[in-house]
């Protein structure tokens, strides 16, 4: 109900401020999730069933659903286990696609690296996909950037990208 939401979310605020904040929150959620995601009822609000791209990816394995890093720019603290599960599933699917669709593998491996820039397995997969596409210019740039990134945290990668891929 509206009153329960106000009491739960805005306990220490004046009623008019709390109502304004609730309306702003609802507007933001509807803008993000879709206008029909939250229904207004006689006594308050009701959530409709919402399916996420992540949920659909896990059900179908369709990597084209990935258009960026998981929760990129959302500034939210989602449990690490959820992110890890999604990235592991994406990694496994991308490995399957390496031989038949290296372009898609390179595309999703980029998202994997954005999510975990210090993961050597993600870096390897990205580089293997770029190599399969004969995209050596990008491969060398990505490896150079990775060497710098890893060095910042005290990890060293071989100087030559070929040596890295052989390990």
Describe the structure.
- With 167 residues, the protein is mainly α.
- The chain contains 8 helices and 2 strands; from the N terminus they run H-H-E-E-H-H-H-H-H-H.
- The chain has helices at 2-9, 15-33, 53-60, 80-97, 102-115, 120-132, 136-152, 161-166, and strands spanning 38-40, 45-47.
- It has a two-stranded antiparallel sheet.
- Helix 6 (120-132) runs antiparallel to helix 7.
Blueprint of the fold:
Elements: H1 2-9, H2 15-33, E1 38-40, E2 45-47, H3 53-60, H4 80-97, H5 102-115, H6 120-132, H7 136-152, H8 161-166
Antiparallel strand pairs: 1-2
User: How much β-strand is present in the residues?
Assistant: under 5%
Structural class: mainly alpha
Q: What gross morphology would you assign?
A: elongated
Average pLDDT figure:
87
Largest sheet: 2 strands, antiparallel
Number of helix segments?
A: 8
């Amino acid at each position: 109900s509206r009153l329960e939401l106000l009491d739960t979310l805005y306990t220490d605020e004046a009623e008019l401020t709390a109502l304004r904040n609730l309306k702003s929150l609802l507007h933001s959620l509807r803008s993000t999730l879709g206008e029909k995601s939250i229904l207004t009822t006689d006594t308050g609000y009701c959530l409709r069933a919402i399916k996420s791209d992540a949920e659909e990816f896990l059900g179908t394995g369709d990597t084209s659903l990935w258009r960026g890093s998981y929760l990129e720019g959302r500034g939210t603290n989602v449990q690490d286990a959820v992110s890890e599960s999604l990235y592991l599933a994406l990694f496994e699917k991308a490995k399957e696609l390496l031989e038949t669709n290296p372009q898609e593998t390179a595309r999703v491996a980029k998202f994997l690296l954005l999510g975990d820039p210090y993961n050597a397995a993600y870096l390897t997969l990205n580089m293997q996909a770029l190599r399969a596409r004969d995209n050596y210019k990008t491969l060398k740039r990505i490896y150079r950037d990775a060497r710098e990134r890893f060095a910042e945290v005290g990890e060293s990668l071989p100087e030559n990208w070929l040596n890295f891929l052989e390990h």
